[in-house]
Write a structure and sequence with these properties.
alpha/beta, four-stranded parallel beta sheet, 3 helices, globular, Fungal_SecMetab_SDRs, Ketoreductase (KR) domain-containing protein
């Protein structure tokens, strides 16, 4: 755990569904919540997250596209820019993805 009394959660896919509900619950405390999501903050699918972020100082967002190597490689630098960041204590991956099935 980080040296401060607050826990830092890093949630991949926290902009809707189960991930967004985790963000709402975890950010109700003073713990830091860093959310990685895909797409622009202005997209309709990210509106709920952006609205919640405006009302809570402990929510920080970074953009991440796990299908893009460059995005994955630079995410550590983006996370380090998070205010009061001292490390990730808990990583939650709530991102869903479609894996093509093989048909015979």
């Amino acid at each position: 755990m980080s040296s401060s009394s607050n826990t830092t959660y890093f949630i991949i896919g926290g902009n809707r569904g189960i991930g967004f509900n985790l963000v709402k619950t975890l950010s109700a405390s003073t713990d830091n919540v860093v959310i990685a999501f895909r797409g622009l903050p202005s997209l309709p699918k990210n509106k709920q997250l952006e609205d919640l972020k405006k009302s809570r100082d402990n929510i920080h967002t970074v953009q991440l596209d796990i299908t893009d190597d460059e995005s994955v490689n630079k995410i550590a630098d983006e996370i380090r820019k998070t205010p009061s960041f001292q490390g990730i204590d808990i990583l939650l991956q709530t991102l869903g993805s479609r894996i093509p099935t093989m048909r015979s």
